[in-house]
Amino acid sequence: MISVDRISKSYGSGENVVHALDNVSLNIAKGEIFGVVGQSGAGKSTLIRTINSLERPDSGTVTVDGQNMNLLQGAQLRSARHNIGMIFQHFNLLSSRTVQSNVELSLEITGMDRGARRKRAAEILDLVGLSGKATAYPAQLSGGQKQRVGIARALASKPSVLLSDEATSALDPETTQQILDLIRQLSRELGLTVLLITHEMDVVKRICDSAAVMSQGRILEQGTVEGLLTTEKSLLGQALFPLGEIPLNGNTIIEITFNGVTTDRPVIAQLARTYNIDVGILGAAIETVHGHQTGRTRLELPGSAETVAAAIADLRGQGLFVEVIGC
Amino acid sequence: MLDRNDPSFWSDLFQTILQGAGETLYTVGFSLLFTVIFGLAAGVVLVTTETGGLLAKPFGSRTLGIVINKLLDLLVNVGRSIPFIILMILLIPFTRMLVGSFIGPTAAIVPLTIAGIPFFARLVEIGIREVPVGLIEAAESLGATRWTILAKVMVAEAVPALALGLSTTIVGLIGYSAMVGAVGGGGLGDVAFRYGYQRYSPEYMFAVVILLIVFVQLFQSLGNFAARRLSHR
């Protein structure tokens, strides 16, 4: 649905040049929720803004729904943008318009007549759970409600793509969850493809199917969230399950990534019993990654090299992802 | 010196003041109309032809954008730096060309409008500049045309600021109109000058001053009220 092919963009010149995007490529399938995580200044904002051509890359191509966005101008570009909704960190609602009227703006732009606008606005406000607030002004709403209006406005013209530019970064944790749940639900119901950028790992964990980690204009890793978690030395995995410093005391230290079914089994107890090892648990983190219990546990395995090797082989045999990180 | 014991003194005063007030409102009203039309346009162009603005590249040329921006900025500054009394005299040939005369309330509209436009243009510029850039970006992301962004986002969101700017402009124009009056533009300034100054009548002078204070209060309060009602921030 969205294909970004080797795009680069830099600002400034000479010594002050900043490479906001450095040879970035992404592929986002239809109906997928794709998250790009990174610190501020990593280039995420520039990346998302190239998707609807709010910014143009210096080189490379951006294709959305089969259309090369770089080549579009004027009316063609505007009509392509009707197919790409966008929501923002600071909501960007018009303070002079009511909730209903803010949503209708999107339809006024597409040229829909008044009656149809009313009907569609009511429909979409209902969908985001704001039907009671149609006549309120944005200033009278909470942050979460404002973002719901933002979502309604973005989706009113029935786009197939939703871009989310740090949409939950100004919200408290509870509201963040509600908004993320709403995005996920809408994405499923409407078959929306979602590209979201965020600096919060939590967001990726909560709703993303796939993710990319960005730093200094480059993509460091990308793939499905589950795949990334079970990738050796994955930045995303380490960021999601921070286990702290690795103590080195001569014993073998391993990290097991649990995924889905295996979380229910008493893996560690079995290990200790079968191999007669005094397994030490150095750290553990369990998270729910969109519906699945996923986690990482760091274990210390004292004992002879053969026993330890056999134990690791056994764990791998059970379908667990095991990384040896110290010995 | 007028005789205040003359039985028709107060009714004459009332008549004269009423006519003067009518002329002032007429002059200010029409200058305001033209000031708003041209000042709004000038203010919008000032903001939008800046680097990164909506009209930064009119007809695809950034150079043209820069030229328009700088030229307009210069014109506005020149217009605002010439003291009104001098501007008024400076404009006499222009006024005569446009209206056929430089005396009377209709002729007074010309210098008032010329003085009002740069004043209001700056206030429009300030008001529009305060509209968050994010709103413009949001409208762009929805596929809005430049005209839609201008009208439905930039100007619409600046309306409360524009209402305040409007009342400030009206107050300014009322002040200027009194000056025009003193040199033949009619209105309350004319009354104050002819009766209050040349004929030493404190009653006429006070009546004019009080009426001017009432006008200024009225329009300023109206502007404040409108700005409050229109703002939903």
From TrEMBL, chain A:
One of its GO terms (molecular function) is ATP binding. SUPFAM superfamilies: ACT-like, P-loop containing nucleoside triphosphate hydrolases. GO terms for cellular component: plasma membrane. PROSITE patterns: ABC_TRANSPORTER_1 (PS00211), ABC_TRANSPORTER_2 (PS50893). GO terms for biological process: amino acid transport. Signal peptide: none annotated. Keywords: Amino-acid transport, ATP-binding, Cell membrane, Membrane, Nucleotide-binding, Translocase, Transport. Residues 2-241 form the ABC transporter domain. InterPro entries: AAA+_ATPase, ABC_transporter-like_ATP-bd, ABC_transporter-like_CS, ACT-like_dom_sf, MetN_ABC, MetN_ABC_transporter-like, NIL_domain, P-loop_NTPase. Transmembrane segments: none annotated. Pfam families: ABC_tran, NIL. It comes from the Bacteria. The keyword Mitochondrion does not apply. Belongs to the ABC transporter superfamily. Homodimer. Forms a membrane-associated complex with FtsX. Part of the ABC transporter FtsEX involved in cellular division. Has ATPase activity. This is Methionine ABC transporter ATP-binding protein.
UniProtKB/TrEMBL annotation, chain B:
It is found in: Cell membrane. GO terms for cellular component: plasma membrane. It is a multi-pass membrane protein. One of its GO terms (biological process) is D-methionine transmembrane transport. Residues 21-223 form the ABC transmembrane type-1 domain. The chain crosses the membrane at residues 25-47, 71-92, 98-121, 161-184, 204-227. The keyword NADP does not apply. Keywords: Cell membrane, Membrane, Transmembrane, Transmembrane helix, Transport. It holds the Pfam family BPD_transp_1. Coiled coil: none annotated. InterPro entries: AA_ABC_Transporter_Permease, MetI-like, MetI-like_sf. PROSITE patterns: ABC_TM1. Belongs to the binding-protein-dependent transport system permease family. This is ABC transporter permease. It comes from Arthrobacter psychrolactophilus.
